[in-house]
Specification:
This protein is mainly α. It folds into two domains: about 40 residues, no CATH class; about 80 residues, Arc Repressor Mutant, subunit A, CATH 1.10.10.10. About 60% of the residues lie in helices and about 10% in strands. It starts with a helix and ends with a helix. The model has no long low-confidence stretch (mean pLDDT about 90).
């Protein structure tokens, strides 16, 4: 099904570029909703999942909340609040930074790593969403999206 049918757009779009903008926004929402549904059984939000993945990627090196925020996909997220919630769930550990007592070092806990191992196969299935495009097309899509942000 095409975008026009998905959003019941009868009048068309002002241009192909305008359609592309709407298509990107619509597809981002579609992907985010699918991810949210996949994370529900684990009682995680997509932002919490993103923080856990960031911390796993930096492990064993801890990160400050400001560094976490800079790496997050959703720049509007409150990294400190997300870290607090993950800490309460036992998924991250916090320590006062030795070199700067004003900062808090955050790193993923064993429980956080264990949870990600359970989630990884489910999220890996998201590759199937892109099964209708070839690797060459995926590379081209990545190139175009990177180009848009420059």
């Amino acid at each position: 099904m095409g975008l026009e049918q998905d959003i019941s757009q009868d009048k068309g779009f002002a241009s192909e570029r305008h359609k592309a903008i709407i298509n990107i926004i619509y597809t981002e929402g579609w992907l985010r909703n699918n991810l949210s549904e996949a994370l529900k059984p684990f009682k995680l939000t997509s932002q919490q999942y993103n923080v856990l993945r960031i911390l796993r990627g930096s492990s064993p090196k801890p990160l400050s909340t400001s560094c976490i925020r800079s790496r997050m996909l959703d720049k509007m997220s409150d990294a400190s609040r997300i870290v607090d919630r993950l800490f309460k769930k036992g998924l991250v550990e916090r320590k006062v930074c030795k070199s700067d007592k004003r900062l808090v070092d955050v790193h993923i806990s064993k429980a956080g790593l264990s949870l990600l191992k359970k989630i990884d196969p489910i999220v890996d299935e998201f590759d199937s969403f892109f099964g209708s495009i070839t690797d060459v097309e995926a590379e081209m899509l990545n190139h175009i999206l990177d180009k848009l942000r420059t």
